[in-house]
Amino acid sequence: MPALARVARISEPHPSSAAFAVDVLAGLKAEPKTLPAKYFYDSAGSRLFERITQLPEYYPTRTELGILNEHAVEIAQLLPAQAALIEFGSGSNTKASILLAAAPHIAAYVPVDISSEVLHQEAEDLRRNFPNLAVIPIDADFCRPFELPADVAMRPHAGFFPGSTIGNFEPHEACTFLRNAGRILGDGAVFIIGVDLVKDRAILHAAYNDPAGLTAKFNLNILARINRELGANFNLKCFEHHAFFNRERSRIEMHLASIKRQKVKIRGETIEFRPGETIHTENSYKYTTKSFGALARGSGWAVQALWTDAEEFFAVYALVRQAEAADAD
Ligand code: AVJ
């Protein structure tokens, strides 16, 4: 992208800043306090997450990349000729590039993401690496319904949802997401999804409590973002990163714990914190192949194929969309 265009894009007001303010205030006024995990990924947060993915303790990214690299040809064979590959919440290009390199028969790549700046930069890089591919980024929150442009709608569709981002949803939300994605992608469509699996709690714990403190920084960045974008006055030194495996719910929970009684001002509203009170910032659900298979089938999809690493830390699924008639609740 030319330097000028990049500057212009950055100086634009954040397109969904109204939604951000509404969601933040609703979450912080709730009991217990929560913040939506999707707001971690402003440009600072996206950069921090990229660094997390390179930590030795953070196994998901490198494990999934290993699976994708090993089975790229097999996966590519499941994607129809001249299809549009639609990626939900794309972030970085690395994973899509593996599939696209193995699937020259794909005509269009459609990354959908709310992190507009990252989205357009990554699209530009991809165009350079795949000159014959139509790269059509969509600035949208993939949790809400979005429209496909006409030149994408007319093609066969395949979906891509790597990174175990599906683990950020509550199971019932994951079901709604899979049903909605099925409606966007259409009957018979293939959906490639990366899912993190249940494993030894020490391994899970280490992945979200790295000694370098990057996960803590990533968690706290959401408060820094609220300060930056909504003019709030969070003191980041007065909140602590907490992450633990909740086995009963089969999820890693991330929280920010207030180290003392304190008040924070956001857009003219005052939010009070008790000592030790937490903001629940993320769930990262871990599935078994049994529980994810059941979720997929209950959401209108059949499991066509499943690949894992030798340790069964992570799974990549190829789901096939079942006809809508078989899809009634
Ligand atoms: C991008 C949602 C898959 O849950 O592991 C990393 C985000 N949070 N470290 C995950 C995350 C803390 C990540 N996902």
- Note the main sheet: 8 strands, mixed
Fraction of residues in helix: 25-40%
Structural category is alpha/beta
Question: Helical segment tally?
Answer: 11
**If you compute it from the alpha carbons, what radius of gyration comes out, rounded to the nearest whole angstrom?**
20 Å
Mean pLDDT: 93
Number of strands: 14
Model description:
This protein has helices at 3-11, 17-29, 43-52, 59-77, 94-102, 116-129, 150-153, 171-185, 201-207, 214-230, 289-297, and strands spanning 33-34, 84-88, 108-113, 134-135, 138-139, 157-161, 190-196, 239-246, 251-258, 262-266, 269-273, 278-285, 301-308, 314-321. It has 329 residues and is α/β, with parallel strands linked by helices. A hairpin with a 4-residue loop joins β8 and β9. The termini are far apart. It binds N,N,N-trimethyl-histidine.
Task: Provide the descriptors you would attach to this structure in a database record.
globular; 329 residues; binds N,N,N-trimethyl-histidine; 38% helix; 11 helices; alpha/beta
Task: Give the helix/strand layout.
Elements: H1 3-11, H2 17-29, E1 33-34, H3 43-52, H4 59-77, E2 84-88, H5 94-102, E3 108-113, H6 116-129, E4 134-135, E5 138-139, H7 150-153, E6 157-161, H8 171-185, E7 190-196, H9 201-207, H10 214-230, E8 239-246, E9 251-258, E10 262-266, E11 269-273, E12 278-285, H11 289-297, E13 301-308, E14 314-321
Parallel strand pairs: 1-12, 2-3, 2-6, 3-4, 3-5, 6-7
Antiparallel strand pairs: 7-14, 8-9, 9-12, 10-11, 13-14
Helix pairs in contact: 3-10, 4-5
The structure holds N,N,N-trimethyl-histidine.
Residues 52, 60, 163-165, 167-168, 208, 215, 218, 282, 284 line the site of N,N,N-trimethyl-histidine (AVJ).
